[in-house]
Amino acid sequence: MPIILPPITRRQFIKRSLAYGGTALMTDHLLTAADRGDTGFDQSRVALLADTHISADPTQRYPGTKWPGSPVKEEEHEWVNMADCLTESAKSIIALNPRPAHLVVNGDCALSNGKEGEYKEFLRLVEPLRAAGITVHVTIGNHDNRERLWQLLPFLKKEQIGVHADVLELPHVNLILLDSGKRGIMGDKQMDWLAKQLDQRQQKPAIVFAHFNPVPTYGVRPSRGMKDGKALLNTLTKRKHAKAIIHGHTHDWKHELNEKIHIIVNVVISNDIECSNCSSSRRRYFRCSRGSS
């Protein structure tokens, strides 16, 4: 199963955050203000973040476009503070009305290789979302270390420790969260599991999530992607109700069609909202957004 961070109470959030000075008070004020606006929850609305790349040092900045083979000139790399990005993204998600019931962080929570300090900071930064009643789902990316993350989540059950793949069943669509690991390999066992889950749930459209891109990309961050990406796309293409795969890893907005499967990076999903960037035939399933962290 994937790592699931359930909602926490406002009291738990404030108690855990006291060590961070005024952060808890400011965020609690934000939550209260949003709730006064009669913000409800939409079980069909899911927010998506990918590649949060949180450092143990919340003040650290790094060039998000610097990558071997990147077409961005050395002097033009954009320096960002990812802790600030995640904080602002959390505020925006909390303020949505209706509020999404779920958030998927699609891999690479950590900046380097999944150090304990990086995960402590990541978990602190997503606590306001959990205090707002949003369930956070985490997939594994190549910068993550699942064992270190497990150690910081004592509430995880034994069956949740291992390969992180599961199905999130929503009212109008099924989201299937996959584990592409640290090297972009799903493996035959997980591929068989995916086929079985798809065949058992043909009554709703299915959207697949994985950190690695299934096909090579040549944008700001060139990437060969999954080693078994072709097999994954073949599994999806054979099933009419499989509609899209959403990934992170490349740090660059992209939307393309591979036969009938939409390949998307950096989106916010909402089943009932039309897509301003896509043709009408695609509007039933997702909304595109260039503002993801």
Write the layout of secondary structure elements.
Elements lengths: L2 E3 L4 H8 L5 H14 L4 E9 L12 E2 L15 E2 L1 H14 L3 E8 L9 H16 L3 E5 L6 H6 L14 E4 L4 E4 L10 H13 L5 E4 L19 H9 L4 E6 L6 E5 L2 E5 L1 E4 L16 E2 L5
Parallel strand pairs: 2-5, 5-6, 8-9, 9-10, 10-12
Antiparallel strand pairs: 1-6, 2-13, 3-4, 7-8, 11-12, 13-14
Helix pairs in contact: 1-2, 1-4, 3-4, 6-7
Notes on the protein architecture:
With 293 residues, the protein is α/β, with parallel strands linked by helices. The protein has a single domain (3-288), classed as 4-Layer Sandwich (Purple Acid Phosphatase, chain A, domain 2). It has helices spanning 10-17, 23-36, 82-95, 116-131, 146-151, 188-200, 229-237, and strands at residues 3-5, 41-49, 62-63, 79-80, 99-106, 135-139, 166-169, 174-177, 206-209, 242-247, 254-258, 261-265, 267-270, 287-288. It has a six-stranded mixed beta sheet with strand order 1-6-5-2-13-14, covered by helices on one side. The chain has a six-stranded mixed beta sheet with strand order 7-8-9-10-12-11. Strand 11 and strand 12 form a beta hairpin. Helix 1 packs antiparallel against helix 2 and helix 6 packs parallel to helix 7. It starts with a strand and ends in a 5-residue tail after the last strand. The model is unreliable at 267-293 (pLDDT under 50).
